[in-house]
Amino acid sequence: MPVNPMNRREFVQKSAVTGAAVAVAGTVGTGTAQAAEAGHGHAKPPKAPKTWSFSILGTTDLHSHVFNWDYYTNAAPVDSKGNTYGIARIATLVKNIRKEKGADRVLLVDAGDIIQGTSLASYFASVDPITGKNGKRGPKHPMAIAMNEMRYDAAALGNHEFNYGIEVVRTFEKQCDFPLLGANALDAKTLKPAFRPYTVKHIKVPHGPDIKVGILGLTNPGIALWDKDNVSGKMAFTGLVEQAKKYVPRLRALGCDVVFLTDHSGLDGSTSWGDELPYVENASNLVAEQVPGIDAILVGHTHVDVPTYTVKNAETGDDVLLSEPYCYGYRLSRFDFELELVDHSWKITKKTATTLNSNTVAEDPRITELLTADHQLVVKYVNTAIGTCTAAMSTAEACWKDVPAIDFIQQVQMDAVKAGLSAADAALPLISVAACFSRTATIPAGDVTIRDVAGLYVYENTLYGKKLTGAQLKDYLEYAAKYYHQVPSGTAVDTATLTNANSFWDYMYDMAAGVDYEIDIAAAEGSRIKNLSYNGTAVADDQVFVVAVNNYRANGGSGYPHIAAAETAYSSTNQVRDLMIAYATAKGTIDPSAFAATNWKLTQGGTPVF
Description:
This protein folds into 2 domains: 24-29 and 46-378, Metallo-dependent phosphatases (Purple Acid Phosphatase, chain A, domain 2), CATH 3.60.21; 385-608, 5'-Nucleotidase, C-terminal domain (5'-nucleotidase,  domain 2, Alpha-Beta Complex), CATH 3.90.780.10. It has 17 helices and 31 strands. Helix 11 (404-420) packs across helix 17 (576-587). 48% of the residues are buried.
């Protein structure tokens, strides 16, 4: 059961940056402490405790996973290790810790990517949008309902918050009882914070000074690339280190005893966009190392489980504690802080972090009660039949073979771009590039539902037509071919170890349709593309192609060469997934023989691998 709100006292202070009211919540002690405060005779006032402890719990990359349910397979997910996910289970873990620790000693924070990632997320962004349609007010987002019920204290903005446009994330922000933080998300014109940079929470200590906890939120500067169409000219995104250097001292100046960051940014210092932006994508380790005054960081974005990780600050030598819980609600990070009162000021004496597995608890009945109707609505929607398919299509081998399931995506992309080209550009050869987003997607023979198509194309990407020369196209495909490990001729190929998917992920690997080529995995990187041809003729370096490509890649996502700077021949706000659904609906029957073609293959020194 939720804690009685009458047991909580709200403190409000003005944000030094925005002037907006910042809610600062803490729970006041009851019972004997209150009696002592009231005073009885000449009893001595109780002394403040010299030590105190509290916890900060953290989630990240929930991606609208409410329950342990896979909308693409229409079943609970099967995990060989028994893992489960969903915010409903996280809610149970949070309740248990609040009961163990005391609700007044627990803060709850998220590190972003909340409103995108499942069919439930798509439904409340596009089908029945929270922004409303036809002049009617939209519904409340299920994630806002759940997180409000769980009494989150703050959440950082994730890059996927912007997939549906700024209006959607602003509407979600209004529906939340906690602030969405983004100190490096700026108004493009004024370069002032477009969202609240930080919030300050008070941990109440009976008869002693509050412990002030400053929570600073930082998001990923890659938003400027990945959602360029939604944010260009409206918002700007600077580096995490740069903004942390500005706001961490401000939080200390406000008297914060503990400074805690929630970063939608990984902790390995890597970047996926090459030189398209001057900032680091996964910068949490750099923030910890380069910005003094930080005690701990909740890390997000990279979908890995890092229970505890320590970085030494280069200036102070102090240890900064970091933790990243695995995505979707598989894990919950728990930071525990012990403090001592020294000269009327709280000092951290010990801090630890770990992650907790959500499979150890059941789904919270209150969250289940609140969200079951929304969940069932989406289940019904995604199981709506939109046509039939003459033969089953699978992505099980799509990462090393040209398969009809990916050709389906390519055909839809080329059809849409072709219909929107000018007369001059329509005379140019048209090709398409697309990636495999899931190795378990299947379009069955027989009836095809919305969830079948959604399982094949899980992202909210829109579509572009970009112009590349033959030389640029070859560079593009050479970059994609980095996906494969080098396997010398005469050496057996094991598909389990063939791809470089731990650093060059499946979603980063583009396959092309409309041109023929070979990828020689026996050759070194940069010289793997062989026999690149169009309509049976070798592609010339100066030949110009229109390339159908999603907006993520077109704007520089994954660091592909040439594409971001290439001339645009076509663009649309229609999502590729919706185009695929429309294709199936309009034709009534998906016939793989109409578009399937083996136009690329892996070789070893010219010998086909498969």
